[in-house]
Amino acid sequence: MEKFNTIISSAVPLTTENIDTDQIIPARFLKATTRDGFGDNLFRDWRFDKNNDPITTFPLEDPKYDGSILVAGKNFGCGSSREHAAWAIADYGFKVVICSEFADIFQNNALNNGVLVVTVSAEFLAKSFSAIEVNNQAAFKIDLKNQFVELVASGDKESFQINGYRKECLINGYDNIDYLISQKEKIAAFESAK
Amino acid sequence: MGKTLFDKIYDKHIVSSIPDGPDVFYIDVQYIHEVTSPQAFEGLRQRGIKVARPKQVCATADHNVPTENQHLPIQNDLSRHQVSTLVQNCEEFGIDLYGLEHPFQGIVHVVGPELGVTKPGMTMVCGDSHTSTHGAFGAIAFGVGTSEVEMVLATQCLMQHRPKRMRITVEGDLQKGVTAKDIVLYVISKTTAAGGTGYFVEFAGSAFSSLTMEGRMTVCNMSIEMGARGGLIAPDETTFEYVKGREFAPKGADWDKAVSEWKELYTDEDATFDKEFNFDASDIEPMITYGTNPGMGIGITQKIPSAADIGATTVKEIESFDKAMEYMDFKPGQAMLGKQIDYVFVGSCTNARIEDFREVAEIVKGKQKADNVTAWLVPGSKQVEKQIFDEGLAEIIEAAGFKIRQPGCSACLAMNDDKVPTGAYCVSTSNRNFEGRQGPGARTMLASPSTAAATAIVGKIANPADLI
Ligand code: SF4
């Protein structure tokens, strides 16, 4: 997995709340047997109309927005456990998702794919949306090492939580499977003691 | 201090704990299906490793399978490829597969319990959020992503943070026409679709202990729809009776030993929860959803609330509510009863067990579905399908004009051909009413099998209590 460094980038705003994984990646795109190419179908039905023309009022297709950060309305990623949602977000090029509340499984899936989920207060989320409204290219700084997110123009900052193990993994580009495989003997001992 | 049921099971499955980090958590059984497993097997191949405990993995094909002509090759190329990839992976890695031709095939969360693979006190995962279903047996079961599927295939373990605990207690007697599905839709309407985020929920009280195992599975199945990691119900005689004699249930002396262990699976009286809810069963009427998340449900005789009624105060909350109304083409103040509908779908891992179809048969017996309704009934497994025919329910249901299809997820997520057309209204016994879930532009209203059956007969949303 790629190592995660400090990121400074503009952000794409998605103010809708309760965005579920069926919207992030509709079920009809789950028939693949590899992890590649899901970014093209990220938010497919919100990005493209029936003739496959881009819907430019939707922020991902709106040329005024870009960047490697997605700012989303509360309870992002609810619904199905499909990791394809996290693959689609990562493949599209997002490295960070900022939201005031994430669905559990999505959060795990994102972190397992090197996408940092940053949980901020409802107030900070509102400030983030208005910063983007005022300046579509407003820069955000995400400092994982020191665990804060900053709206660069105003200097508004908020710290975020992440457990130490996850943080180490992201910074060093480790993954959970490597760790678990290193624990094989302990696991076998646990099984025989059961 | 006493322990909760959840903690009793959880503690027994910790292999080791990382300070300020997750636990290495042991998984007794992993269920897999064709959609969320191929990338995990591919990962194993890339790392050059085998499946650690192939006998603790149980596989079936369900999401992509057609529900007609299952004896023929699957027509859709991508679906066929995904299902055949599962067959190859199971062969290569030595995993038992209940594939399309197998008499045990069906929706993974129907198959596991009916084979007795799911048992009290176990830990189970699957790359599927409705794995929570298996919690009905007094087990810890939850959905995981494909990277986690790969972890469990590789090591039989997961990296897991202990969730917070919630208890939802519902006491009292149920009104006429009210079923397990209505209880859980009611609970979610009270807690909202995100109310359980970060929690594992125990369902307690007489409203749950008086349910059959099928009913308890319906409840735990939908615990994920309140955002919870999963739900569970303490096992009791009803549970043991259900497991007894099934294909993979313990037999003879092993059975007695197992039951004596299972009897220890309850929440101690002095255990505490991080959050508790209490509801009165007699307040619950048959439920139906009017919006685009499962928390947007009301009693069937009620009117659609306004954004303010459901406590939406911020601009965003109001916008989300309005968006749902626009998608459904509903207005606050509108009655649900009497609304004309186009489709009825009885199926999915929430409500495609034998008891659900008995419920349907009881309501439609001797009646005819309305002409404006297309009614699909999709059994949860081959065994359920067989039972429908053996018990003579099929005859009653088909005579009423329902089409009985072959087992699979079907219109629950519309990955195969079973799609509800754009703009059409469908009363569905599944678990999600998200935009486009049953097909692009399809409008889903979640309800119990009884409500779905009554609605099919009347052609408009109907209260099953009026037809019983
Ligand atoms: S029936 Fe629906 S909810 Fe259940 S496993 Fe299949 S797709 Fe998922």
Characterization of this structure:
The complex is a heterodimer of chains A (194) and B (468). Chain A has 194 residues and is an alpha/beta fold. Chain A has one domain (7-192): Alpha-Beta Barrel (Aconitase, domain 4), CATH 3.20.19. Chain A has eight helices and eight strands, in the order E-E-H-H-E-H-E-H-E-H-E-E-E-H-H-H. Chain A has helices at 21-24, 44-47, 84-92, 104-112, 122-134, 164-172, 176-181, 184-193; strands at residues 7-9, 11-14, 69-72, 96-99, 116-119, 140-143, 148-151, 156-159. Chain A has a four-stranded antiparallel β-sheet, with helices on one face. Chain A is globular, with a radius of gyration of 18 Å. The two termini of chain A are 34 Å apart. Chain B has 468 residues and is α/β, with parallel strands linked by helices. Chain B has two domains: 5-262, Aconitase, domain 3; 287-466, Aconitase, domain 3 (2-Layer Sandwich). Chain B is 31% helix and 17% strand. In chain B, the strands form five sheets. Chain B has a five-stranded parallel β-sheet, sandwiched between helices. In chain B, helix 12 packs across helix 14 and helix 12 packs parallel to helix 15 (449-458). The termini of chain B are far apart. Chains A and B meet through helix 4, helix 6, helix 7 and helix 8 of A and helix 2, helix 3, helix 5, strand 8 and helix 11 of B. Residues 62-63, 107, 109, 128, 130, 348-349, 409, 412-413, 430-431 of chain B line the site of iron/sulfur cluster.
How many β-strands of chain B, per DSSP? 19
* Rg measurement of chain A, Å: 18 Å
Distance between the termini of chain B: 47 Å
Number of helices of chain B: 15
What distinguishing features does this structure have?
heterodimer; A: 194 residues; alpha/beta; Aconitase, domain 4; four-stranded antiparallel β-sheet; 8 helices; 8 strands; B: alpha/beta; Aconitase, domain 3; 19 strands; 17% strand; globular; binds iron/sulfur cluster
